[in-house]
C-alpha cells in the first residue's frame, strides 16, 4: 500500500516537471515524424505520412497503363492523381506546385511486353520534391520489373503449352489458354509489393513504423536514468531519510520507486502509441494485447534497470552523464538510430544483448503480425531482466 | 517515554557519540544543547532508527529501537535538521503524502492536513509549491509534516536554523503549544535562549559526551559557586592570559573573538578577583569594564568546556 503511495507521488512529481515532460512525451512524437519522413530513402518504402500528388499523362488507353493507374496508383491512399491530356502540362503543373511528381506514359506502353521490354516512362520532378519522386520511382520500377518477370514466365509457359498440348487441342484454344494465364499472372504482378529491407510476418513494415518502434524503444530507455535520478534526488532532498523514519520498510520504499518509474514508463508508452497512431498514422499491428504485453514488459525492464543504476551511482552528475551518452549508445546498438538491417554482422550480434533491441524487434514483429509464440521469449526476457535488475539494485540500496 | 543507555557510535573509527545516557519522561520538553558537530543529529538518527548504534540500547515506551523499529516509528515524529520535503509539489500535497506514509486513511489525512496547515499558519499557501516558500515557511511545513500522525514524541533537530526572528518566534510558540497539549518534545539547538524558553530539562552535549544533565535550575545551581566575570580590556597579550590562568580560583579563561574582552570562570570562595586586577595593573593593561554575568546555560557551557556554544 505504502509502495503505491510512493509510486503515485513519484509520477505526480514527474508530471509537475514540465520540461522533463516535454522531453519524454512530446519529443519522441516529433522525432518519429521527422525521422520517419527524412530517412525514408534509406528504407525506400511507402509512406503514409506524405501526401503525394501525381500529374499523370497517358498517351493512349494502353491496358498496362490503365492497370498501373487503376490498380496500383489509385490503390495507394497517400497518392492523389491529376490526369492531363498533354505532356507539356506536366511541367507547368509542377512549376505551379499543383503536383509533386509528373509521370508520362508513352503510347502502346505494353507493346514490347512479350519480349520482356517496356518503353520508357518519363518522370518529372522538382529538386525540392526529391523524396516523393523517389517513392514514385520505386513504385514504378517495382511494377515494371514485376511485369517483366511475369511476361517472361508467360512466354515460357506458352511455349511449353503449344508444344505439349498442340495435339489435344486446336490452335485457337492454345491462344485462349495463354491469354487467361497472362491475365492471371499480370494481375499478380499488379499487387504492389513495395521494396522493403525486411519482410516479417504477414505484412511489411514501413519506415514510419520502423522509426515509431525505434523511438518507443529509445525514449523508454530514458526511464533508466530518470528513475535512478528520482531515487538520488530523494536522497539529496533528505526525503529518503524521512521515508526511512516513517513506518515504511526499505523494501516498500524501493518497490514504490520502482513502481513509480514503471507507471511513468507505461504512461509514456501509451501516449506515444496513441500519438503516433493519431498524428503519424502509424499502424502498430492488429494485436493490441501483444503490443501492451511487449510495452509492459519493456517498461518493467527499464524500471528495474533504473533501480540497479540507482544502486550503483551516487551522484546526480553521473546520472546525467549516463543519460547523455550511455542511453545514446544503447539506443544506437539497439537499432533506434540506424535500421538494424543496415548493421554489419558483428554489430548485429552485439546488439542482441541490449534489451531495447528485443523490444524494437518485438514491436516490429507485432506490426507485421505474428503469433504469440514468436514474441513470448522477448516478453519474458524483458520481464526477467527488469525483475533481476531490480532485485540486485534493491540489495545494493539496502546495504547503503 | 524515552530511555537512552550507554549509546556509542563511531564513524570511520572516529567516536562521535561516547557512552551517552539520558531519559525523557512523558509530557516533558527536553532540550539537547550543544555546538556544531557535538553529535546531536547523530544521536537523533539513532533514536529514530535511521542510524544503527554500536553499543548500548534505546527504548521508547519500553520497546527497543533495535528490535521493534516499526512500532516505534509510528509513535515518534521527527523534524529533520534539513528541509525534507518535495519542492515541486504543493504544501498540502506534501502533508497528504507524509500522512499516508504513516498509514493514515484518506479521510484522516485530509482532515489532519488542514489542521496542520492552520496550526503552522500556512492555510493560505496550501496550494503553492514548496519551492516558492520562504525559508521560514519551509521550516514550518517541515515541522507540520512530522505532526500529521499525531506523534506522542516529537523530536526536533534545530528547527529554527537560518530563519528570521519572526518565523522563529512563531515556531517556538507552536512547539510550546504542542508540549502543553501533551506531546513529549525533544528539542536540539545551539541557541541557549530557545532551549531555556522551551525546555524543562536540559542535556548539554559536547564532542559526543553529555557534560551536564538536569533542570534549568539544577544546572544554574551548579554555577552557584562558579561565576563568570566578563572583562573588557584595552589590550591583551598571551602572557597575561597565561598568568591569569595560574591564579588560584580561576577555572577557565575564554577570549571573545575580535574583541579585547575575556570571560573568566572563577570560584568565588577562593576570591581570585583582587589578584586578577593586580596582575592587570602590573601588566599595564587597563580594565574598561568588569561585569558579573547572570548564571545561564551559556556560562555553564563555558564553564564545562571552556568554549562558547556558538563559534
Ligand atoms: N555519516 C557520517 N559519516 C561520517 N561522519 C559523520 C557522519 N554523520 C556525522 N558525522 C560526524 O559526526 C559528528 C557529529 O555530527 P552531528 O551531525 O551529529 O552533529 P550536530 O551536533 O548535529 O551538529 P550541528 O549543530 O552542526 O547540526 C561530526 O563530526 C560529523 O562530521
Ligand atoms: Mg545536527
Q: For the terminal residues of chain A, how far apart are their CA atoms?
A: 24 Å
> How large is the count of helical segments of chain A?
15
Please write the CATH class name of the largest domain in chain B. Alpha Beta
What's the SSE pattern of chain A?
A: HHHEHEHEEHHHHHHHHHH
- What would the average pLDDT of chain B be, to the nearest integer? 87
Q: Order of SSEs of chain B, N→C?
A: EEEHEEHEHHHEHEHEEHEHEEHEH
Helix content of chain A: 55-70%
GO molecular function, one term (chain A): ABC-type transporter activity
Transmembrane segments (chain A): 20-39, 210-232, 253-279, 291-313, 320-340, 375-395
Membrane topology (chain A): Multi-pass membrane protein
Keywords (chain A): Cell membrane, Membrane, Transmembrane, Transmembrane helix
Question: Would you mind describing this structure in some detail?
Answer:
The complex is a heterodimer of chains A (400) and B (311). With 400 residues, chain A is mainly α. Chain A is built from 15 helices and 4 strands. Chain A folds into 2 domains: 2-43 and 204-399, no CATH class; 49-189, D-Maltodextrin-Binding Protein, domain 2. Chain A has helices at 2-16, 18-38, 40-43, 63-72, 87-95, 130-164, 171-190, 207-236, 239-245, 250-279, 288-312, 316-333, 345-351, 355-368, 372-399, and strands spanning 52-58, 79-84, 101-105, 122-125. The model of chain A is unreliable at 44-49 and 160-202 (pLDDT under 50). By secondary structure, chain B is α/β, with parallel strands linked by helices. Chain B folds into 2 domains: 2-220, Rossmann fold (3-Layer(aba) Sandwich); 225-294, Alpha-Beta Plaits (2-Layer Sandwich), CATH 3.30.70.100. Helices cover 35% and strands 29% of the residues of chain B. Chain B is built from 11 helices and 14 strands. In chain B, strands 6-7-8-3-9-10 form a 6-stranded mixed sheet, with helices on both faces. In chain B, helix 3 crosses helix 4 (106-119). Chain B starts with a strand and ends in a 6-residue tail after the last helix. The mean pLDDT of chain B is 87. The A-B interface holds A 2, 5-6, 9, 12-13, 16-17, 237-239, 241-249 and B 48-50, 70-71, 73-74, 76, 78, 80, 82-89, 93, 97-98, 100-103, 129, 145. Bound molecules: adenosine-5'-triphosphate (ATP) and magnesium ion. Chain A: It comes from Peribacillus psychrosaccharolyticus. Chain A: This is ABC transporter permease. Chain A: GO terms for molecular function: ABC-type transporter activity. Chain A: The chain crosses the membrane at residues 20-39, 210-232, 253-279, 291-313, 320-340, 375-395. Chain A: Pfam families: ABC2_membrane_3.
Amino acid at each position: 500500500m505504502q509502495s503505491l503511495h510512493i509510486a503515485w507521488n513519484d509520477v505526480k512529481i514527474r508530471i509537475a516537471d514540465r520540461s522533463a515532460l516535454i522531453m519524454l512525451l512530446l519529443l519522441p512524437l516529433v522525432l518519429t515524424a521527422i525521422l520517419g519522413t527524412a530517412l525514408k530513402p534509406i528504407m525506400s518504402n511507402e509512406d503514409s505520412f506524405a501526401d503525394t500528388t501525381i500529374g499523370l499523362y497517358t498517351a493512349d488507353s494502353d491496358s498496362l497503363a490503365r492497370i498501373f493507374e487503376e490498380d496500383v496508383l489509385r490503390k495507394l491512399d497517400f497518392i492523389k492523381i491529376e490526369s492531363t491530356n498533354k505532356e507539356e502540362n506536366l511541367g507547368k503543373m509542377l512549376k505551379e506546385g499543383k503536383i509533386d511528381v509528373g509521370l508520362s506514359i508513352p503510347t502502346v506502353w505494353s507493346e514490347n511486353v512479350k519480349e520482356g521490354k517496356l518503353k520508357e516512362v518519363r518522370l518529372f520532378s522538382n529538386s525540392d520534391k526529391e523524396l516523393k519522386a523517389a517513392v514514385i520511382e520505386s513504385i514504378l520500377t517495382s511494377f515494371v520489373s514485376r511485369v517483366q518477370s511475369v511476361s517472361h514466365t508467360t512466354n515460357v509457359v506458352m511455349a511449353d503449352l503449344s508444344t505439349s498440348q498442340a495435339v489435344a487441342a486446336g490452335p485457337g484454344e492454345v491462344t485462349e489458354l495463354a491469354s487467361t494465364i497472362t491475365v492471371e499472372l499480370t494481375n499478380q504482378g499488379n499487387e504492389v509489393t513495395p521494396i522493403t529491407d525486411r519482410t516479417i510476418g504477414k505484412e511489411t513494415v514501413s519506415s514510419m513504423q520502423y522509426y515509431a518502434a525505434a523511438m518507443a524503444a529509445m525514449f523508454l530507455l530514458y526511464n533508466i536514468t530518470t528513475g535512478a535520478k528520482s531515487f538520488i534526488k530523494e536522497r539529496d532532498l533528505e526525503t529518503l531519510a524521512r521515508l526511512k523514519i516513517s513506518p515504511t520498510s526499505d523494501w516498500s520504499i524501493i518497490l514504490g520507486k520502482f513502481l513509480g518509474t514503471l507507471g511513468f514508463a507505461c504512461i509514456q508508452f501509451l501516449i506515444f502509441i496513441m500519438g503516433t497512431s493519431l498524428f503519424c498514422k502509424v499502424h502498430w499491428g492488429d494485436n493490441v494485447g501483444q503490443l501492451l504485453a511487449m510495452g509492459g514488459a519493456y517498461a518493467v525492464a527499464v524500471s528495474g534497470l533504473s533501480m540497479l543504476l540507482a544502486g550503483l551511482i551516487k551522484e546526480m552528475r553521473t546520472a546525467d552523464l549516463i543519460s547523455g551518452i550511455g542511453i545514446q549508445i544503447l539506443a544506437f546498438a539497439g537499432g533506434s538510430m540506424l535500421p538494424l538491417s543496415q548493421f554489419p554482422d558483428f554489430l548485429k550480434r552485439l546488439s542482441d544483448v541490449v534489451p531495447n533491441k528485443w523490444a524494437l524487434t518485438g514491436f516490429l514483429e507485432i506490426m507485421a503480425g505474428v503469433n504469440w509464440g514468436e514474441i513470448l521469449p522477448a516478453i519474458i526476457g524483458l520481464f526477467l531482466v527488469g525483475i533481476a535488475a531490480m532485485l540486485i539494485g534493491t540489495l545494493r540500496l539496502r546495504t547503503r | 517515554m524515552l530511555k537512552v543507555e550507554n549509546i556509542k557510535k563511531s564513524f570511520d573509527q572516529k567516536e562521535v557519540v561516547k557512552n551517552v545516557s539520558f531519559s525523557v519522561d512523558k509530557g516533558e520538553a527536553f532540550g539537547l544543547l550543544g555546538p556544531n558537530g557535538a553529535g546531536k543529529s547523530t544521536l537523533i538518527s539513532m533514536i529514530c532508527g535511521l542510524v544503527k548504534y554500536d553499543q548500548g540500547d534505546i527504548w521508547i515506551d519500553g520497546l527497543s529501537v533495535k528490535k521493534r523499529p516499526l512500532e516505534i516509528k509510528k509513535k515518534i515524529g521527527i523534524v529533520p535538521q534539513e528541509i525534507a520535503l518535495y519542492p515541486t509539489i504543493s504544501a498540502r500535497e506534501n502533508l497528504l503524502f507524509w500522512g499516508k506514509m504513516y498509514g493514515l486513511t484518506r479521510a484522516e489525512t485530509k482532515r489532519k492536513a488542514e489542521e496542520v496547515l492552520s496550526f503552522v499558519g500556512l492555510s493560505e499557501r496550501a496550494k503553492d509549491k514548496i519551492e516558492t516558500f520562504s525559508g521560514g515557511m519551509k521550516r514550518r511545513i517541515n515541522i507540520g509534516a512530522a505532526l500529521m500522525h499525531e506523534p506522542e514524541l516529537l523530536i526536533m533537530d534545530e528547527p529554527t536554523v537560518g530563519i528570521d526572528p519572526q518565523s522563529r518566534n512563531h515556531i517556538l510558540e507552536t512547539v510550546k503549544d504542542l508540549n502543553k497539549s501533551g506531546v513529549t518534545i525533544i528539542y536540539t539547538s545551539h541557541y541557549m535562549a530557545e532551549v531555556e524558553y522551551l525546555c524543562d530539562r536540559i542535556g548539554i552535549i559536547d564532542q559526543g559526551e553529555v557534560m551536564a544533565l538536569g533542570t534549568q535550575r539544577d544546572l544554574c545551581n551548579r554555577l552557584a559557586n562558579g561565576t563568570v566575570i566578563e572583562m573588557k580590556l584595552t589590550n591583551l597579550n598571551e602572557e597575561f592570559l597565561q598568568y591569569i590562568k595560574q591564579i588560584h580560583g580561576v577555572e577557565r579563561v575564554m577570549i571573545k573573538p575580535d574583541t579585547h574582552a575575556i570571560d573568566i570562570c572563577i570560584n568565588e570562595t577562593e576570591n581570585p578577583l583582587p589578584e586578577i586586577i593586580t596582575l592587570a595593573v602590573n601588566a599595564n593593561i587597563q580594565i574598561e569594564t568588569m561585569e558579573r554575568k547572570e548564571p545561564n546555560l551559556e556560562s555553564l557551557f563555558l564553564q564545562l568546556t571552556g568554549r562558547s556554544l556558538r563559534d
